Amino acid sequence: MSKNKKEKVEEPLEEVKDAVPAGGECEELRKEVESLKAQVETDKDAYLRLRADFENFRRHASEDRLKLITNASADLIKGMLPVLDDCERAMKMIADTQGEDSPSLEGVKMIYNKLFEYLKSKGLALIEAKGEPFDTDKHEAVAQFPVQDEDQKGKVFDVAQNGYTLHGEIIRYAKVVVGI
Asked: From 2.30.22.10, 3.30.450.20, 3.40.50.2300, 3.90.640.10, which CATH number describes the 125-180 domain?
């Protein structure tokens, strides 16, 4: 019985010995494993780069869509600026001819205020110019006017046309008269 047990134990050992490759084959398998590991690392690196490129593409596409929407609204708002100018001129003309208490003036003021408040809600802001120091980043000098007061020199004396910003960017410079 002990001989049977010994035979049973030796049989699996023989199978294991047959499964282990000879010296040269083992080295070949190690090289193949190393080669496969290197290939996996290369593929993993390529995958990570591709994933990063896709994330960059998605971010750029989103930014481009946002710029397109912003530019479209900027063009629409720029097209509305002459209407604001016309309302300002109409209010001035009505006030000069009919007086400040005119019902026509009140009507035009209501229209102007509604339009301006709507555009303001979309990011439009008036560039304050009158009495401010002349700034070429915000103002465009259309004329110079001699002033007696030294404090008024180099400052905006009058505004010929209002300037506006949209979300902090200038969309139209204020056309001003500068005191000299």
From this structure: 2.30.22.10
